[in-house]
Amino acid sequence: MHWNSASEFFAMGGYAFYVWGSLGVTALALLLEPILVARRRHNVVTRLQRELRAEELEATAARKSA
Predict the structure, then answer these.
(1) pTM for this structure?
(2) How far is CA 15 from CA 4, 8, 10, 11, 31, in A?
(3) Mind listing the pLDDT tens digit for each residue in 15-32?
(4) What phi-psi label fits residue 14: left (phi over 0), alpha (psi between -120 and 50 degrees) or beta?
């Protein structure tokens, strides 16, 4: 397409709401995904560390009582 002015470009031939809304939602998803993945990873690592400590405490307690 050919636009004669910046306002025509931003109007996108009458589809501006759809075009810019889609661009905005996509940009938001691309920004949030790494943040959410990092948070999920942190939660999993924390949970695994907790489970490991609990297993170590159980093993220590079992050795002491044996």
Answers:
(1) 0.67
(2) 16, 11, 9, 7, 24
(3) 999 999 999 999 999 999
(4) left
Q: For the purposes of burial, counting CB atoms within 10 Å of the CB of 7, is it exposed (0-12), middle (13-18) or buried (19 or more)?
A: exposed
Spatial distance between the Cα atoms of 15 and 49, rounded to a whole number of angstroms? 51
In this structure, of 21-25, 29-33, 43-47, 57-61, the range with the lowest mean pLDDT score is 57-61
Dihedral of the alpha carbons of 44, 46, 52, 55, in degrees to the nearest 10: -100
Write out the DSSP string of 6-32. HHHHHHGGGTHHHHHHHHHHHHHHHHH
